[in-house]
Design goal:
By secondary structure, the chain is an alpha/beta fold. The chain contains 15 helices and 13 strands.
């Protein structure tokens, strides 16, 4: 008997890194058949053609959905979204999966979900219920929740929020954060191995920087990021590892600013288009902290007992550990946060950090549910009204 066909969609390097062990679990299950559809930055030369990493890891890509990422303007991204919806319409007609698995909140995921909903294919959504009030991702995430039929959330608070959106409680499962799984499963590089892999020598102090445009902020990405770079430029005896931003509005502006900073500080700074999970998490392990506005600073850094300087509002609303220092997106606030990061009391407290995203096992829990859940009548959703006391 053929197994239940599970199609996993991925559109970016970071998302694939989180999904890798879910993919492995589906692939290794006797009663599941894995399908993979790639889109977005995976297919862009500008972002490193990272679909090749997926193939190098031993997976077969069943479909590629082009999105024409030729512009980082609002108009360009909106048109790209339309192209992707049309592409996924063809993919779902061709692959005919039993369940589509989607992670997160990017516009590529919205395209895949929209086409799957109309094609009457059940959707399993991972990491719903979270909040990122400074980005359009917030609205996309909740929209995908309303199109989805199964929900794999990272914490009890997120489970309550998904139910508050009208989803049936018996379809919402707390599994923990996928980033914790990745840290536990990978054998991270030691300091010497990492330096060789990066072709970059670590310093006395080291910071890992990832900054994405906060797409709902009134201040431009340029103004916000200039404040961060200004604070970094004042630091002494510190080396900087930058990862370039995702394909979002104004992302090219940030990329140019990083490249200019690296050119001006070649001995202490280096930028990478795609580090991959192993090198990224190894950098996190050997750096003093993470700075920027990436979700990894909140969901993964606490497991490695590293401090995070969370700049601006992009991640406002997410659960955070005591290791996260929130600050405004200006040079003065970031200077203050850096002083706190390097203070002795803060460093001592990091050893006691507990990650609110759990202690691992999310991938296995997701695969187990994909194997066992009944799909009978799942497409006809009923709105769940939360009881009022």
């Amino acid at each position: 008997m053929p197994g239940r066909k599970i199609c996993v969609v991925t559109g970016s390097r970071a998302e694939y890194g989180l999904l890798q062990w879910v993919l492995q679990g589906i692939k290794g299950s006797a009663d599941l058949e894995l399908q993979i559809a790639v889109t977005g930055a995976h297919l862009s030369p500008e972002f490193g053609l990272t679909y090749k990493v997926i193939e190098h890891d031993g997976f077969v890509i069943d479909a590629k959905v082009e999105m024409a990422l030729s512009s980082d303007s609002a108009v360009g991204i909106t048109k790209s979204l339309g192209v992707a919806v049309a592409g996924f319409a063809d993919v779902w007609a061709q692959l005919r999966p039993d369940i589509v698995v989607l992670l997160g909140d990017r516009y590529e995921i919205l395209a895949a979900a929209s086409a799957a909903m109309i094609a009457r294919i059940p959707i399993a959504h991972i990491h719903g219920g979270e909040a990122t009030e400074g980005a359009i991702d917030e609205s996309i995430r909740h929209a995908v929740t309303k199109m989805a039929h199964l929900h794999f959330v990272a914490a009890e608070e997120y489970r309550r929020r998904v139910i508050q959106l009208g989803e049936q409680p018996d379809r919402v499962f707390v599994v923990g954060g996928l980033g914790v799984d990745v840290i536990q499963r990978l054998e991270l590089l030691d300091r010497e191995e990492l330096q060789r892999s990066l072709d970059f020598k670590l310093g006395k102090q080291n910071l890992l920087i990832t900054f994405h445009p906060a797409t709902l902020d009134e201040d431009s990405a340029r103004a916000q990021f200039a404040g961060l770079l200004g604070a970094l430029a004042e630091m002494r005896d510190t080396h900087f590892i930058f990862t370039l931003p995702n394909a979002d509005t104004e992302s090219r502006t940030i990329t140019r600013m990083i490249e200019e900073f690296v050119l001006a500080h070649p001995r202490v700074a280096k930028a990478f288009q795609s580090l991959g999970q192993l090198r990224y998490l190894s950098c996190m392990r050997h750096c003093d902290g993470v700075i920027g506005n990436s979700s990894s600073g909140l969901t993964e850094a606490p497991t490695l007992h590293k401090g995070t300087i969370n700049v601006g509002d992009r991640q406002r609303g997410r659960l955070r550990a005591a290791s996260v220092i929130d600050c405004e997106a200006n040079a003065a606030a970031i200077r203050g946060a850096l002083r706190q990061l390097y203070s002795a009391p803060f460093a001592a407290a990091l050893r006691r950090t507990a990650n609110p995203y759990g202690e691992g096992g999310a991938s296995e829990r997701i695969v187990a549910r994909l194997r066992s859940v009944s799909l009978r009548g799942i497409l006809k959703k009923r709105f769940y009204d939360v009881p009022v006391d």
